[in-house]
Amino acid sequence: HRLFSFIGGFAGAGVLYGLTVTDSVPAASLSGTNNVFGDLNIGQAFFLEVIGTCFLVLTVLATINEDRRHAPSYLQPLAIGISILVLHIFLIPHTNCAINPVRGTVWNVVTGQQDKNTIIFFFAPFVGAFVGVPIFELISA
After folding, report:
1. What angle is formed at CA 73 by the lines to CA 69 and CA 137, rounded to 5 degrees?
2. According to the model, what pLDDT value does residue 73 have?
3. Would you say the pTM of this structure is higher than 0.85?
4. Residue 79, by phi and psi: left (phi above 0), alpha (psi -120 to 50) or beta?
5. In this structure, are residues 34 and 72 in contact, taking their beta carbons and an 8 Å threshold?
6. Helices 118-140, 101-110: crossing angle, 10 deg rounding
7. 3-state secondary structure the chain
């Protein structure tokens, strides 16, 4: 499943790169790359991405939890969308908000802007998911 996400991500980023990068518009001028901005160090950026992904996982799991006896409705995707909006508002100034390993690494690689910080955006979402699920199990028990 994750492999196909990366394949699709590289295909989409390749098409976007091919359509937008020209001699007058270099890849470095395009937004969307994830990096550590401001006075953050790598550890702080990793922690922010882990917490952000954990927040998203907790929101999704709580929203789709059948034990809450909620009928499926438009409010479930709305709650998830609002959590993603809040995460982007908070994380974009610091890391450009990856919260997804594909979104966090593929564009950096395709545009040739990967560096030592790119690995944060590959691993932090996995760690956030691995932390979020046990937390959800603990609080929903």
Report:
1. 45
2. 75
3. yes
4. alpha
5. no
6. 170
7. CHHHHHHHHHHHHHHHHHHHCCCCCCHHHCCCCCCCCCCCCHHHHHHHHHHHHHHHHHHHHHHCCHHHCCCCCCHHHHHHHHHHHHHHHHHHHHHCCCCCHHHHHHHHHHCCCCCCCHHHHHHHHHHHHHHHHHHHHHHHC
Contact 45, 94 (CB under 8 A): yes
Q: From residue 37, how far is each of 45, 87, 95, 115 by CA, in Å?
A: 9, 16, 6, 13
Structural tokens at position 52: 């952000």
- CA 103 to each of CA 9, 33, 107: distance values in angstroms, whole numbers, following the listed order: 7, 9, 7
pLDDT tens track for 37-85: 989 999 999 999 999 999 999 999 998 887 777 667 778 899 999 999 9
Q: Residues 19, 75: contact at Cβ < 8 Å?
A: no
